[in-house]
From TrEMBL:
Transmembrane annotation, as ranges: 35-56, 68-87, 94-112, 124-156, 168-195
Superkingdom to which the source organism belongs: Bacteria
Organism (species): Microbacterium aerolatum
Cross-referenced Gene3D superfamilies: Histidine kinase-like ATPase, C-terminal domain (3.30.565.10)
Protein name: Histidine kinase
Assigned keywords, A-Z: Membrane, Transmembrane, Transmembrane helix
Keyword Oxidoreductase included in the entry's annotation: no
Amino acid sequence: MSADAALREAWGRIPSPGTADTAFERFTGKRMERILATVVAIGSAILGAQALISAIGGMTDRTSGVQILLLVVVYVPLVGMLIACAIGRGVRVTGGAFAIVYVVALATWPFVLESDGAKENQPWIFFLVNVGVVAALLAFPIWAQLVWALGVPLVYGYVRLVEGEFTATFWTTTAFDVSFTIILGLVIIALGWMFRSVAAGVDDARGKAVASYASAAAAAAAEEERVAMAALMHDSVLAALLAAERADSDRARDLAVAMAREALTRLANTEAAVAQEGSDDPVGTALIVAELRRALSELGADAIVEERGSAGLIPGKAARAIVLAARQAIGNAIAHAQGRGLHIVAEGNGDEGVTVTVIDTGPGFDMATIGEDRLGIRASILARMAAVAGHATIDSDSTGTRVVLGWERT
């Protein structure tokens, strides 16, 4: 793959600054997940440090290599989870890994424990019971979180009874510890569910508000365009058609052509405050490129404007039409394709003409589905280029849209 191809492929994956992603970003939900991960990291680090101190302090000459291996097996995923929570990446994977590894390690504890009877002090692994529950909070769906909140304390209770050889003293203390751990785990799960539900509600409400505003703005714009087009059709286009029908001399035909050009220009400039063709003084390709870059800046987009071919001069009206039509194509790419892969190429052919191509890698569209009263393409691009004897082609599919605008001297 060439450098230019690699650059274009990378550019196509980056949305233009200031534009939203296709799916409405769940900002509050992401922020809440970040907060939960941070709180879990702090609490887990404290409990993990306590357990590590207890494990190191309880080591003796009789400590087996299996017990040391178990310590490593538990703490490697725990440290991985803490790092993931700190950097905000891979939290679900590392949290799920620790939750599963910890339950397995806890269940195997009686098989690696070397004891001549009941122990008065809890081993280090029991300090991490609630850490296993909060790891499930980060990684699993709500039903699995409840399973962990209930199951891990019960596994802990069973292991503790096995360690104490099921003596009466251990039944009482273990029942208290298990019930307390279950209640604490359920409270943690409930708080996590509540915070996530509130964040999801905020995101949904904001998404509905934005969608409602966008729908109202689109409806208002469509109505404004419909009224503008109706007035224009009555005042200019209809008059040009009548003049063309009644033309019976060269002068009348020339007048009808001029009226048609003016009507097409006004149709293309319907969205502008002042509809005018502008000066017909010759304009160079460099000025067209500069205007395109200025249009990108005004629209808040960041894209490449590439200049190719040989510089030359073309009529000012044609240059103005190309710039305005390209501006409309750029606006469409930003509005409907989120500016993905936006790339503009201006290719000059000396004094013979110029071609401007606007490319994006958005989802594309179907021209047949665009309403007849929509001016964004039919008027602002196609009619505008026709008014200066130029040409415009639009190719769009699921891989993107390519708008080619050109003017050639005849």
